[in-house]
Structures are given as C-alpha cells and as structure tokens.
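Reading group handout, session on sequence-to-structure problems. Before we discuss, look at one worked example. The prompt was deliberately terse, the way you'd type it at a terminal:

> structure Trk system potassium uptake protein TrkA

The input record follows.
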Amino acid sequence: MRVAIAGAGAVGRSIAAELIDGRHQVMLIEREADQFEPHAVEQADWVLGDACEVSILEESGIEQCDVVIAATGDDKANLVVSLLAKTEFAVRRVVARVNNPANEWLFTDAWGVDVAVSTPRMLAAMVEEAVSVGDLVRLMTFRQSNANLVELTLPAETPLAGKPVSELTLPRDAALVTILRGDRVIVPQPEDPLEPGDELLFVATADVEPEIRTALGY
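And the output record:
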C-alpha cells in the first residue's frame, strides 16, 4: 500500500518505520521545519508543508494513496486532514489519532474518519485486557461500520471447555474472528475446541455485546 502520514513527530515516525518494515510505501507530511528530518526515516518520502492545506495535499499526490493517517498532536488538524483526504481526494481509508478523549465523539465518518485511534482509550483497554478474565473488553471501534473489536478471556472454570466453536450461538451482528492460545493465532473452524485461557476476539456491534456474554455463559 501507499500510505500518507500527516505529522512527522515521534508518533508519525514510529508508524512510518513500522509500515516500511511491512514493505509499504510511506510519505510523511510535516509542517514544522524543526521536525522535518528526512534522515530520521530515510526510506519514506518527505513533504514539507501543512497537510491542512489543499494545495499541499495536491502537490504531494495524496489522491494516489490507499491510506491516510492523521497523526499530529492536534485533534483539530487531524480532523481537517481526515475530512480533506476523504471528501476532496477520495482516499479509501482514513485513520485518525485522537489526542484528547473528550474529542473522540467528533472522529466519525462525518469528518471522513474510518478508524479513530485514541491512545488513552487503547492503553486503558490493554490494561483491562491484561487483568480481565470472563468479561468483554472493547479494544477498538470501527467508525465506518459502527462495530467494535472486543475480547474475552475464558476463565479456568469455563463451561465451554472442550466444546467446539460450532456450539457457540452468537447473535447476528457478531463474529468470532480469532482465538489466541498461548503463542498461537487460530482462525476458528467449526470443529475447533475451546480451552480455558483462550482469548476470543469478536467483531460486533455494541448492541449485541450483552448477547455475546450470554452465549459464553456470563
């Protein structure tokens, strides 16, 4: 993929390095001259300019990008970048960083955001995921589909131990997408048995999360 990242601070550079390691083409757009350091991520294309300006986005060829990531430290700038990328340049996928959780409600498809990533919320979710057994933990929200990625770790005394995945009666708007078992990532098949300690990852709408708990015996 070709990915444009608005904001070449520590977060933007880290994302760029990870994507380059994954063999993607990356372009960093940075408006501050003191943050413009192409040697920091040499394999990326660098553009000096304000990603909130249509002319800069045009000159950078952002319409050729598959993904735009608004990763600045300013929520207002991230919203503007997202809106321009989606409405003016028809970028297929827009991911935006949320710096202040109080602004999270703004990061929706109305502002061109497909996926909003709130670092404070994700850190809190990771803490919950690490200590919560037998309860659903919401890890991420997919704005475009209004669905969530949720996780539940089966406790030692789970009644589902040994039962196949096919016996799970999930609601219509929920899907079991992955089972994490130790260092294994299992794409669930109907005949796969469940085990205590399994981390189950679901994609589901918020309104059916209680039904997932019921299906898992909680």
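Points for discussion. First: The longest helix spans residues 75-87. Second: The radius of gyration is 20 Å.
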